Write the structure tokens for this entry.
Amino acid sequence: DGVVGGEDEGFDPMGFSYAFDIRWLREAELKHGRVCMLATVGWISTDLGMRVSDGSAFQVSTIDAHLSMVKFGSMPQMLVWLGLAELFGFMAMIRMYQGKTDRAPGDFGLRALYPKDEAGQYQMQLKELRNGRLAMLAYGGIVTAAVLTGKPWPFFAVGESRATTAGDRSTFCGGLQKAQVRSSAVAAQAMERSASMPFLPKPEGLKGLVGEEVGFDPLAFAETFDARWLREAELKHGRVCM
């Protein structure tokens, strides 16, 4: 009670608010949501070709950007400035916990475009909370799709695909160990649309399996893993669930 969204949604299935200070939980949720909203916009922008500089260090894919910045020497400076911001945020939280201020979790005093009335302020806070939650899910999905497909956003086979290997995306989270070279012939075949999901290319990895005509493989697992192993697992889980 008393937390934005709490009285309307009441979503706390694990009971975290009983074990931890709800102010700390909301502070963390807002911080992660804001970071993911910025990260989602940033990832899509760089995938669409936007760069802050023409330098060679910036002419890399979004997946390889972190490693490139480490080699370029940008990360220590980012660590210092972000650490300073975290320090001020931590001091504000401590004063809030001690009751020295009436600060709400996540409030850093930024009032640009902020409504004047209480009802408008509540709605603005609720929108930020919900959009932040959506952005956390969206960013996780974007990173996963980027690593698995090796393609830029929106990760569909639109136009001629460049030949890639699993090593190209191995710098992020270990990547994949099995090299897969996609030739121009495969790229051309990928333009054939899936029957079940017409906005996606027809998955070639399902060829020869029952149900291949449906073409349902939205995350392209069959291109990454052996389709026979996937079908074995699918049938086993289906039989157990039946």
User: Anything to note?
Assistant: Residues 158-190 have pLDDT under 50 and may be disordered. Residues 88 and 213 are 58 Å apart (CA to CA). The first helix runs from residue 6 to 9.
